[in-house]
Amino acid sequence: MNNLKNVAIVAVVLGTLAAVPAHAGKTLDGIKARGQVVCGVNTGLAGFSAADSNGKWTGLDVDICRAVAAATLGDPEKVKYVPLNAQQRFTALQSGEVDVLSRNTTFTLTRDASLGLHATVVTYYDGQGFMVPVKSKIKSAKQLKGQTVCVQSGTTTEKNLTDYSKANNLNIKPVVFEKLEAAENAYFTGRCIAYTTDASGLSSTRSKVAKDPNEHLILPELISKEPLGPMVRRGDDEWFAIVKWTIYGLLESEEYGITQANADALKATSKDPVVQRILGASEDTGKLLGLDREWMVRTIKATGNYGEIFERNVGPKSPLGLPRALNNQWNKGGLMYAYPVR
């Protein structure tokens, strides 16, 4: 009887704790005080984060920043974008210069375990590839033996290139540049026979920088796994949870057919318990994150679900023309699998 009584007491305590609203956390407190989410992004990678001539930022990584601002501040435009190169990005996050790093950054053991940072959720599954001029007649990465390859320093790309060259006895000669633009320019001016980065980055460069995209071929091989996504500082679990669950919310919204256009209507009419929960109609999940009840419906209305973000920025109908492939939902042959928002 005593054991049963103890179990009942524990159940009551756990149930009570589960209902307690979360404290916002120091990062969110700072964001609310300044009225902006400060987001570290790429200096210019079409489809992911790039500014136009008017200074307006767009891209998949940018939309993640906008989603977080909508969830936390109620307005997707309340974002300050800080363009960072590969060498600057981690220091900027560690020092508190930015609240979140949403900059086509690969999650690795070293980065996760030694930099004082948390990997959140993969927003794009990628892999490293090579681009060559069509006139080079090169059709495979294995034909790069003894050739020069342009690469940006301070990246997993540089290390992967060295590993691939050694493993295949290719004696590739890396030509290393600190800035992305310098590496791209060197390739397009003929200083290197090939350029290497994430395959999505190659598509972006070919679309945005090449005078004639048809003169450049992205080789079929992928030589690495590059799971890309936002990172936050360690030490603020509440902020980590907010960024993580905002992304999961975007993913699960796509899975259940909640879109930018129908979110309000579904909130009022849907009988699906999952849809009702995501949209805050049946449960207040926001209080568990230190947010309000409308956090997720507001986010979806601001950016659309993950699928809408993908299609708008990098999908088949965008200038990059990338297929969903691994970035499709888990029930459509992809790897995108959201933790349940419940």
Question: Could you say which overall geometry the principal axes of the C-alpha atoms support?
Answer: globular
Structural class: alpha/beta
| Share in β-strands | 15-25%
Counted by DSSP, the helix tally is 13
Q: Indicate the percent of residues in helices.
A: 25-40%
Rg, please? Answer: 22 Å
Averaged pLDDT, please? 94
Order of helices and strands: HHEEEHEHEHEEEEHEHEHEEEHHHHH
Major beta-sheet overview? 5 strands, mixed
Q: Termini separation (Å)? A: 33 Å
> Residue ranges: pLDDT <50 for 5 or more in a row?
7-14
Please explain how this structure is put together.
- The protein is α/β, with parallel strands linked by helices and 342 residues long.
- Helices cover 39% and strands 16% of the residues.
- The protein is built from 13 helices and 14 strands.
- A 5-stranded mixed β-sheet has the order 10-9-11-8-12, with helices on both faces. It has a 3-stranded parallel β-sheet with strand order 4-1-5.
- Helix 3 crosses helix 9 and helix 3 (60-73) runs antiparallel to helix 12.
- The two termini are 33 Å apart.
Keywords for this entry:
342 residues; alpha/beta; five-stranded mixed β-sheet; three-stranded parallel β-sheet; 13 helices; 39% helix; 16% strand
